[in-house]
Specification:
2 copies of one chain form a homodimer.
Chain A (H helix, E strand, L loop, with lengths): L1 E5 H11 L14 E5 L5 E6 L3 E7 L1 E5 L2 E5 H9 L5 E6 L5 E5 L2 E5 L2 E2 L15 E4 H9 L16 E16 L3 E21 H10 L7 E6 L3 E6 L2 E6 L18 E6 H12 L10 E6 L2 E8 L2 E8 L1 E4 L2 E5 L1 H10 L4 E6 L6 E4 L5 E5 L7
């Protein structure tokens, strides 16, 4: 193999595919990036067997071939080269010689044949969504997936398509996060559970705007994301997700409108007094126009009062403040609306159009 | 005690004194900051028994007194308050009530009497130096102190005053770093060894310009730094420093002038191939006009050639590349001059005026 390309194009491509390099693995080959010039294009690929990423880098192919290089050293090396043309040439022992101006590296490599290629999956009709929107709705919901739950479905997010509507949901035992968006086109009804880890990495690669599209192909066992020069394939999580609709309700006894930044500042202050070993609840006392918060731990006491607009009954209710803080961080509205029913039923934070719905279970407390 | 001050003044003061909070200690009281309003000024103090820092915050003292508060929670709390006036009031049980607008905290405290006060040391004639210069010369030499050496003197830097000359030096078993500066005034001859840890923290607090002065008082067992509203006291290291003058020499057989950034880029590339377990030398082959570098490890091979101006004999010599990189990072000249004598004698990197002198021992290699 012999190829020449610009250092920056190569480095950008490597940064994309390295998201699929596992941080820990017993299989050495998965720590490699595949540099594949078998065709007339230069493909870079990484694959941790759940998530695979392939991207095309514009290059001059002088001699076809492919090689696997240990990703960490190779990527560090490319980053530290001068901003100029880089050439990579392999010998029959799979050693790669990398030349850039007066800099010459030689790295041991492995045969490209050893690399676990991405599965070849026939593409059906894609779902089109903007890169910006997909990144946003992932980041706005992914914090409430369960990372350790034995129920594997909770380690992923549920994506449901119905006509021109897309809903993304995640839940752990304490809260639910939902975003609803409208797609430009309409599609058949379908739903998949995508591993949270894969969605996290995809959100990090997507840096396009509202105009740049992602094409999503849902298949039986995989989902494919095509965008720019990049293809991401992830396995799906098998199983049946919880019936989220059954957990949602429009009933409430108390409706509170509150400035989001003020509430967030206040909750961040309360969190300072929480010990990891001794989880104390944040108590809300909701009266007309006043919203008193109280938290007490071995570290000290916290009290703060905020101005609110309230409808309905007074209520006293308590939460794990970190769960409320997670919601406030991903909502962008100036004011948010909180719906409360009783001290033992979930609170709902949602907008009128239900573009977002966040559900948080309260905790017991002694008043 | 009852005081009122601005949140930002208080927070800035806390950021200064927290540099003397030990990260690990068996004495709880050292994790506290002393808030002392015994006089008509508000003093904040922290003291890890080697380094002590005290700073004055402008405040309204409504009731004299003092209290010790656990620094981490207290500083986090002040940082998270609204930007407004903060009042701190203690009760006879040393609990502190902190109020800022509608936010109210109560923290458990300890009696100010328990705090290890800074030693009271009579001040003699101070040495005057600009904050900017002191910060610079510390940062330009501190990297070569020995952090683990059993010889305690090597854990510190030697500061020598002679007339209007100040020299700061550090050395470990492999290299020496020296900066020489001229002071505005002249002083009696004296020298002290200051713990590296203290100098590091002082360099982090000093953010003044060339016009802002530090007043340094050298005493038998301590050195005091007075600047702005802050006093830093550190214990000195006892013992006799190595005779650095004996290690310096102006002899050379080869003199190389090289672009500093080019050499730094090259050495950073070579370092990528170094394993922590398998320290390979960077070999320099110095010929007329050409400077070839080579490093070979289990990770791969590196070769690069740089353009130089050379006087004297050709030479082949090898170094730990990290030691050369440390020097290049703290020199600001566009070109540096390297003086070499033989493959087994130290290399000198210095300017003509000897404002800086860096000495690095070579390592053995097979050519």
């Amino acid at each position: 193999m012999k190829i020449t390309c610009s250092k920056n194009d190569l480095y950008n491509g490597l940064q994309i595919v390295q998201k699929a390099i596992p941080s820990k693995t017993t299989k050495d080959i998965l720590e490699c990036v595949l540099i594949d010039a078998s065709s007339n294009e230069l493909h870079l690929t990484a694959n941790d067997m759940e998530l695979g990423i392939e991207t095309i880098v514009s290059a001059k192919i002088e001699e076809h071939g492919r090689v696997c290089l240990e990703s960490k050293t190779f990527i560090d090396m490319i980053r530290n080269l001068p901003d100029d043309q880089v050439s990579i040439e392999t010998n029959p022992r799979d050693e790669a010689r990398i030349d850039c101006l007066n800099v010459h590296f030689k790295l041991p490599g492995r045969s490209g044949d050893d690399f676990p290629y991405l599965p070849i999956i026939p593409r059906n009709e894609p779902i089109k969504i903007s890169q910006f929107t997909l990144r946003e709705i992932i980041q706005q919901t992914i914090f409430s997936i369960s990372e350790t739950d034995v129920k594997r479905v909770l380690n992923g997010e549920l994506i449901e398509i119905n006509g021109n509507k897309l809903r993304i949901s995640s839940l752990d035992g304490h809260r639910i996060s939902i975003r609803n968006i409208e797609l430009k086109d309409s599609y058949d009804e379908s739903s998949v559970i995508i591993p949270g880890k894969s969605l996290n990495e995809i959100a990090r690669i997507l840096n396009g705007s509202l105009e740049d599209m992602v094409y999503i192909y849902l298949t039986e066992n995989h989902v494919i994301f095509d965008f720019d020069q990049t293809t991401v394939i992830t396995r799906l999580i098998e199983g049946k997700f919880f019936d989220i609709n059954r957990m949602l309700s429009d009933d409430y006894e108390t409706k509170v409108v509150i400035n989001r930044r003020d509430l967030m500042g206040s909750i961040n202050r309360a969190i300072l007094l929480i010990n990891d070993s001794d989880k104390k609840p944040l108590i809300w006392n909701v009266h007309d126009q006043s919203f008193e918060m109280h938290l007490s731990s071995t570290k000290g006491n916290f009290d703060e009062e905020l101005f609110i607009v309230k409808e309905g009954r007074d209520i006293q209710i308590a939460f794990n403040p970190r769960f409320i803080a997670d919601v406030l961080r991903v909502v962008e509205d100036e004011n948010i609306t909180i719906y409360l029913l009783s001290p033992s039923t979930p609170c709902f934070i949602r907008d009128d159009a239900k573009n977002y719905i966040y559900v948080v279970l309260p905790v017991n407390f002694k008043s």
